[in-house]
Amino acid sequence: MMRFTTLIKNPADWMTGEGADNAIVLTSRIRLARNLRGEAFPGWAKKEQRRHALEIMRPAVEALPCMKDAFSQELDDLNSVQKQVLVERHLISREHAARGEGSAAVIERRQSIALMLNEEDHLRMQAIRPGMSLRGAFEALSAIDDDLENSLELAFDHELGYLTTCPTNLGTGLRASAMLHLPALVLSDQIGQVLQAVNKIGLAVRGLYGEGTESLGNLFQISNQSTLGESEETILRRLERVIAQVATHERNARDKLLEDDPAMVSDKIGRAYGVLRHAWIIDSKEALTHLSLLRLGGDLGFLPQDTVKTCDALLMDIQPAHLQLHSGRKLSPEERDSIRAEIVRGRLQSLEAPDIRSTRKKDESDPDPEIL
Amino acid sequence: MDCDICGKHAKVHLTQLVGGQIKKIALCDDCAKEKGVTDPTGFALAEMLLGKTPGKVVPSAPTVAGSGRRCPNCGFTLEDLRRIRRFGCADCYDTFREDVNQMLRGMHKGFKHCGKVPAGMMELHERTQRLEELRGKLDQAITSENYEEAAGLRDEIRQIEVRATPESND
């Protein structure tokens, strides 16, 4: 089995990979909730019942072909920084990190598949892909679900579908979501309108780290709310359609900003570059705000295209637990701010100043960048 | 009409079926907001109808819904559901099926699963679905006094039921 340090040494596949619509859709994520028949749900179960459920599930999960040489660990055996790193990488939830005895995480080597054992449900399975790839992620996870059904007795009802701890997850147990980078909609004050429209058709919109968190770095997560009464196919199709529409709005807003107010866009990107290249103390909110603009600059042709990738990797690496892991010790908030600035400066060292005279380099080489 | 909670002018009027009885509730804007009646998840509404609301509002609802039932598998009660808003085990859904159906109102796009079915349960699932469909048609046929069709449907239902439990034929 893989050690924690080996698992986390490399960025996850979905953090570095290039997916469809990557300039706007960072990642696609699918989560399936499943429970064992006859066993008390984790939140209600006594310690020994949780242990018992774990003993049933863990061998079945570890035996999955994709989990060969995977990382598999009880959360009690990880320290708080290690758990927090897994949360920052979206490999376990905050709720799971807080759970006590009998909870475990089994994570595939490339970090594209992660299974939480004894979270709110007995099994919370997740697949993440770079870019717009909800379907690919669903197919991968559904195959794993089929495999597990052969070895585990899952709780299923002919009317209510897969039975979950919370009735909001009944039915398919499916939560499909995509992380979108929408700086132009924010800059042009259209974001409220767009998000309201998304909400109206029964989809949920959240900030970077899920429920109840504010949006940082112009990152928004769009996901389905309803899980009962519709097939997985219907849920995915609606979400895909809406995400494509939001991405088109963002693309149009980017074009319009460049056309209407190129000086403002240049100024924002130039300032973001200046701060990130030369700051010695930077908190995470400020860093995310500027990285978002730098990422936009990469996509608009003010900066080399691979700036987008650099920014994506930094989004993860400048988070508190990642910084502590990087330093190998516990850091005070002040220390974190200065190490964060150091890492950002280091990564952007060779990045030349944005070409603010150009309107849009990208247009010259790629006359039709809208792949929607 | 006055609000059932505070007596102010009521603007929200709810009619719900609780345990087979029609219950009407009138609420003013403030109380409706406080009770989460506008909550799109419907959870707060379910909670209210399950009997958390004090005062003169649907006094019979708590006895209808929370009749002290306990899940035979995990010991969970409706009181626990109100407290933690989660169920105790999969069997709770059977124990509290009526209350679950109330709760699902407004929470999802529908009341019936139409997604993936575990491979091992496919046959049973399809049979259950088919029986339900036939029973619906049978009801319709009887209502429209189409007795010939009704007889055919009844036979088909019997056949499926007999095939499902061959030992009961002995």
From TrEMBL, chain A:
Classification via PROSITE patterns: PHOSPHAGEN_KINASE (PS00112), PHOSPHAGEN_KINASE_C (PS51510)
Signal peptide (residue range): none
Top-level division of the source organism's lineage: Bacteria
Residues binding ATP, per UniProt: 27-31, 90, 124, 175-179, 206-211
Activity regulation field: Appears to be allosterically activated by the binding of pArg-containing polypeptides to the pArg-binding pocket localized in the C-terminal domain of McsB.
Entry protein name: Protein-arginine kinase
Renumbered ranges of motif RDXXRA motif of the pArg binding pocket involved in allosteric regulation: 336-341
Gene3D superfamilies: Glutamine synthetase/guanido kinase, catalytic domain
Family assignment from sequence similarity: Belongs to the ATP:guanido phosphotransferase family.
A Pfam match: ATP-gua_Ptrans
All residue ranges annotated as the Phosphagen kinase C-terminal domain in the record: 24-253
Gene name as annotated: mcsB
Species of provenance: Luteolibacter flavescens
Function (record text): Catalyzes the specific phosphorylation of arginine residues in proteins.
From TrEMBL, chain B:
KW DNA damage (keyword) present: yes
Domain UVR: 128-163
Entries under InterPro entries matching the protein: UVR_dom, UVR_dom_sf, YacH
Keywords attached to this entry: DNA damage, SOS response
UniProt keyword annotation of DNA damage present: yes
Listed PANTHER family: PROTEIN-ARGININE KINASE ACTIVATOR PROTEIN (PTHR38430)
Protein name per Swiss-Prot or TrEMBL: UvrB/UvrC motif-containing protein
Organism, as annotated: Luteolibacter flavescens
